[in-house]
Design brief:
alpha+beta, single chain, 95 residues, six-stranded mixed sheet, 3 helices
Length: 95
């Protein structure tokens, strides 16, 4: 997977606060460059990805600059699960 070309959908709140604590993978992709990853702070409502004014696109590479722990998650997990960042373990863990 080319992390420079592949994109994720991220909430604008996550971009604004420069924080990603929840990552989910889906098969419901929007384009050839959509990786299926959905990124958020974690306290947004469950319909946050349904409102275009609340989301943006970000390269997987850029997402890893916000949270370096995403790198191994992007490379090793493509199942349709949600992952939450554990500060205790310094990694994303499956929910």
């Amino acid at each position: 997977m080319d992390m420079k070309k592949m994109m994720a959908v991220i909430t604008k709140k996550a971009l604004e606060f420069n924080k990603i604590h929840l990552a989910s993978h889906t098969d419901e992709i929007m384009s050839d460059y959509d990786s299926g990853w959905r990124l958020q702070v974690g306290d947004e409502d469950e319909k946050c990805f349904e409102r275009m004014e609340n989301i943006a696109l970000i390269s997987l590479e850029k997402a890893c600059t916000i949270s370096p722990y995403l790198s191994s998650l992007f490379k090793n997990n493509t199942d349709n699960k949600s992952y939450q960042f554990s500060q205790e373990k310094n990694e994303f863990i499956a929910l």
